[in-house]
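Record Acyl-CoA thioesterase, 200 aa.
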Amino acid sequence: MSDDTPDKPAAKKAARKTTRRKTTSRKKPVTPKAEATSPLVEAAGTVKADATATSSQPVSPKAPRAATSAGLITVPMAVRWRDLDAFNHVNNSKYLSYLEEARLQWMLTVPGMGMDDHVAPVVAAAQLNYRRPIAWPAQVEIELSVERLGNTSLTIGHRIVDANDRGVLFCDGHVVMVWIDRDSGSAAALPDAVREACGG
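=>
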């Protein structure tokens, strides 16, 4: 009578082989990688949002903001395609146009626009420090402030910044405006309305 049951040594060897196969077939669990869009984690353990996520987002044009204790006015402005030069950034001469428009927006808030039949303002000097180029498309803000209030002149400080990130400075400097007599062309006293608008 034949016996089909394997002997004990053979059974033990088969069991060991089966165990090895099961052991070697196990895989370590894969830890999922963090997504590229996750926030930046600082060394202190706090989470800091990625500030570059919104810096390039366009914003809708806004109305000029009234003067604050530190300035005269802030004027938002859209960069136009025709403002670009051969290097595909805003030509340096256009900065003067931006500043002129901002000054006119401020003068609209001054009674009589700071002039009358006898006196009117002229630009006597302009200083511009070009800090970085302005690309297209972009929204900028022109900030005007009082640097000096004289007897016949007003020095207006200016800054052109990114409307999405006001820490990005494109240009700064100042413009000197002198009020003159329309008939003689000589310097005239600063109008009271201008002085009051500047907090003087």
